[in-house]
Amino acid sequence: xxxxxxxxxxxxxxxxxxxxxxxxxxxxxxxxxxxxxxxxxxxxxxxxxxxxxxxxxxxxxxxxxxxxxxxxxxxxxxxxxxxxxxxxxxxxxxxxxxxxxxxxxxxxxxxxxxxxxxxxxxxxxxxxxxxxxxxxxxxxxxxxxxxxxxxxxxxxxxxxxxxxxxxxxxxxxxxxxxxxxxxxxxxxxxxxxxxxxxxxxxxxxxxxxxxxxxxxxxxxxxxxxxxxxxxxxxxxxxxxxxxxxxxxxxxxxxxxxxxxxxxxxxxxxxxxxxxxxxxxxxxxxxxxxxxxxxxxxxxxxxxxxxxxxxxxxxxxxxxxxxxxxxxxxxxxxxxxxxxxxxxxxxxxxxxxxxxxxxxxxxxxxxxxxxxxxxxxxxxxxxxxxxxxxxxxxxxxxxxxxxxxxxxxxxxxxxxxxxxxxxxxxxxxxxxxxxxxxxxxxxxxxxxxxxxxxxxxxxxxxxxxxxxxxxxxxxxxxxxxxxxx
Length: 484
Prior knowledge:
The chain is built from 3 helices and 25 strands. The protein is α+β, with helices and mostly antiparallel strands.
């Protein structure tokens, strides 16, 4: 009996050394300080999976479901471990497994855990002027490890991955949506040890500790640091205040319009446009044939820019494309010089006259832009927009003085009591900004030269009447004189 207890003691020492070796490795990488979890007063350890869905601000949360696999890698009792436990690599390539692999009871498996999102989830927006929206969730994404799950003592290892391409993007046509799946991979190591518990349900084992190591990051680069897999806590609005470190991040980008999105819809149909800037001239002296100069700047959303840098084959070009159309006739006519290319962050001068529309075809939802009319030629400027502006202005109203510098947030110079360069954000549907230029002259008083013939005719009539009266008076006086 004493000999058996001595062997068990040696086993425990080796296993604890192994776990401490894992911890030392993770800390040496300097990237994580996740704890070693233990059951505390209970017998079980619960872990949670968190999912962050990142998208440009103003993007509606899609109806997506993500699937996760727990893969049981194997179990070791560590006696033949090479190299030594103190240098055990995080990817477990040198682990010596017990063969055959023992069967587990009720262990997590393939596609057992799922996390769903829907359009009611608003998420958290960040940046200026509100660039990024992150929706998090770990509902029904927890799993509890129990001693009854394991057949014998040892170190049990699981790999946790996200399944790829599980969403069909059926909500909108696929060619103008983009969803990047996470390549993150985690390793969960659970140390199971013998126990002398006297509980009836005890199977002679207990969970000693659990370590979670992020083996690969979301972009597939090596990780090798510990994280805290404790399930997150939530605010009253469903926002995680302390999410699990066992977390996967996905990127979603959406471009509206129904004719091609992505790299461009049909510019001849305004319903296919992702942003329209319109010009209208009104008033009795409005210059309807005058070309009004505009400076238009498209700013890359940070989510889009970052995804371009890391994703091969990403279907957005580095430039955005727009066309000018003359809508004054029965049919829209494309103006010479189209398309116009916009490099993110660089202002482009565009000339628009009455009835002209500048139609963009590939600006994603959440794209920031500034449209500035450089010269109004004495016209009063008013601007109406339906774009999502995140509280700067209410949609479907006239835009009054506010933020115009999209980079710093400073206020612009009002022109005719109206700010003509609002920093706006492309919203869903077909967002537009209407520039109306009005020039009215007050009515003139006095006589106009064109009225002179009518005035002379009236004077002639009055003169004839006055002459006739004078003649009658003279004749009457003369007759009276003869009568005397």
